[in-house]
């Protein structure tokens, strides 16, 4: 068991290291767009002997803190994956409290008034109340001159691509263009124009917590040239120093963009 004196010393050393790390970062090497897969909430709760909903609450509380860190270093866009399409199949006794937590979190992010909120996902798959909160957040923050925050709720990369192709075909059909003509001239730019994140820069850096080293369908199209950083910490335990390490790791890489 640590004594109060040892705890104070550890805290002081940790603070010194954190400040040194922050000073070492170059403003010219910051990612414009960070995507984050917030993973490990349920494991965090189970390890503490708490209900799963407590883990989701702890994870939700971390989001605004993470956005503050991104804001501080000049990130322009953040995409936070809060709920996947696969998560929608979870038992009702877990899913319903989770949706309420998401609604509350989005409302709190909106009330901060510093960020533009943009929902990305299949809103038609969500309960009406949740979809309305997401739409309301976007409307309420559309004129905010600040960091753009994509809240990915009911999001799946495969579903996004299917929606993009469907939207493209419907748009072309409305112009009277045949399916054969569309097939002949469609290219990657046409599909990109129909993604949930259309008009945004693709993520430079994707962070995933909890030690899992996979995307799980997150921003499949957009992350083709992204850098990835996998962190062992469960999302509720993700610290400022973990964030700074991710930024430093990104800044030290030589990006080749597929060449």
UniProtKB/TrEMBL annotation:
Cofactors that this protein relies on: Mg(2+)
Query: Per UniProt, which keywords does this protein have?
Result: Magnesium, Metal-binding, Transferase
The answer to whether UniProt assigns keyword Amino-acid biosynthesis to this entry is no
Please share the entry's free-text remark on the cofactor: Binds 2 magnesium ions per subunit.
PANTHER family for the chain: DEHYDRODOLICHYL DIPHOSPHATE SYNTHASE COMPLEX SUBUNIT DHDDS, DEHYDRODOLICHYL DIPHOSPHATE SYNTHASE FAMILY MEMBER
State its role: Catalyzes the condensation of isopentenyl diphosphate (IPP) with allylic pyrophosphates generating different type of terpenoids.
- Entry-linked NCBIfam families: PRK14828.1, uppS
Stated name of the protein: Isoprenyl transferase
Q: Record the organism.
A: Kribbella alba
